[in-house]
Amino acid sequence: KPALLITAENGENVLVVADLHIGFELELASQGIRVPSQAEKLLTSLKQIIRDYSPSRLILLGDIKHEIAKISPSEWIDIPKFFNSLLKEKISVEVIPGNHDGNIEPLTPRAVKIHSVRGVLLKTLKNTLIGLIHGHAWPSPSLFQAETIVMGHVHPVIELRDHMGFRMVEPVWVKVKVSTEELIKDYLKYRKIKFSESSIDAFKETFGFAPRTENIIIMPAFNDYLRGAAINKFQRTSLLGPLLEAEIMHIQASEVYLLDGTFLGEIATLQRLSVNSEL
């Protein structure tokens, strides 16, 4: 499943999923494509994971709803029902809003905690820090204490073809290695903080700690109807959000994994295979 289970410092399990896009069927319907509501299917799948692994917390990494600027009639019905059903599982439900989650507050029961779009910092049982964010906005400076930031937003997939030309598109996890120096340089520019030499030193002087972020993990969308950029046909414009648009990625060396954990290789290798398969 496209879900992440983290054991927090107090021993509780924290379940993390991203990109539900409840109500996306209306956009397809406007294009003449009829797809039944997937809200119940998403809920059933999520509840099964909760019952299998007994997490104490569920953190949704944004884009719970699909409409960006408004709330559709189906979202008024499906999203409150979705949250209320999850709360019956005796689990803490938390939301880090995404770019599709404008005006989501009226749709959420009071028991659902809504965090800042700037993300959440989570300490694990191994005393490491993980940053959690949707990915459409810059994180809070506190998240740069984490060596790894986990985000959604992109819906990464890999496109595969066999020798007969049959095409498969599979959701994947992507582990991106970043340059901390370049990442922080772009962040300081965003914050309009001037520096002359080391961005690391300037950040530490401003915020009181040295940034440690070295990896970004991009989660696949929990809604398996959604397909985003095929990472083996990568174009820089295909990736969205300041963390990925910044010139900080060692994108060719990024590692790609299927949902079952199978390591497919680095993006550079997968791109070469993709080109060769089309010759």
From TrEMBL:
<dbReference type="GO" id="GO:0016787">
    <property type="term" value="F:hydrolase activity"/>
</dbReference>
<protein>
    <recommendedName>
        <fullName>Calcineurin-like phosphoesterase domain-containing protein</fullName>
    </recommendedName>
</protein>
<dbReference type="InterPro" id="IPR004843">
    <property type="entry name" value="Calcineurin-like_PHP"/>
</dbReference>
<feature type="domain" description="Calcineurin-like phosphoesterase">
    <location>
        <begin position="14"/>
        <end position="170"/>
    </location>
</feature>
<dbReference type="Pfam" id="PF00149">
    <property type="entry name" value="Metallophos"/>
</dbReference>
<dbReference type="InterPro" id="IPR024173">
    <property type="entry name" value="Pesterase_MJ0037-like"/>
</dbReference>
<dbReference type="InterPro" id="IPR029052">
    <property type="entry name" value="Metallo-depent_PP-like"/>
</dbReference>
